[in-house]
Specification:
Blueprint: E1 4-8, H1 12-24, E2 28-32, H2 35-45, E3 49-53, H3 61-71, E4 76-81, H4 86-95, E5 99-102, H5 107-118
Parallel strand pairs: 1-2, 1-3, 3-4, 4-5
Helix pairs in contact: 2-3
Length: 119
């Protein structure tokens, strides 16, 4: 069975594109557009993998990552950002991110990272 995925991304079009693409391959994908909604959806849905934007309108993505890790240390969190900032990537990995992708996201690359996290 393929893992369940939660996309926490404030760019609605990007979130929908990711969802449509991953559903095509059989993944169960839910979307949240804010950190607060993402945390609520995480507790309700309990996904195996979270795709988490660093810059959210209400809560910083690193703070959301810390809260996700405290709720479920086994969930794989893949950070997404428009900045290719090494300091942010290192900070995310220290908090417990599984991997890190920069925008614009190549959907094939995303699928490979998700499949790797699923193993």
């Amino acid at each position: 069975m393929l893992p369940a995925i939660l996309v926490i991304e404030d760019e609605t079009t990007l979130a929908k594109n990711i969802r449509t693409y991953l559903i095509r391959y059989g993944f169960d994908v839910h979307i949240a557009n804010t950190g607060t909604d993402g945390l609520k959806e995480f507790e309700r849905f309990r996904p195996d993998i979270v795709l988490l934007d660093i810059h959210l309108p209400d809560i910083d993505g690193l703070e959301v990552l810390e809260k996700l890790r405290s709720l479920d240390a086994q969930a794989k969190v893949i950070m997404i950002t428009g900045e290719s900032n090494v300091k942010v990537a290192v900070a995310a990995m220290k908090v417990g991110a599984y991997d890190y992708l920069s925008k614009p996201i190549g959907l094939k690359e995303l699928k490979l990272v998700v499949e790797k996290a699923a193993r």
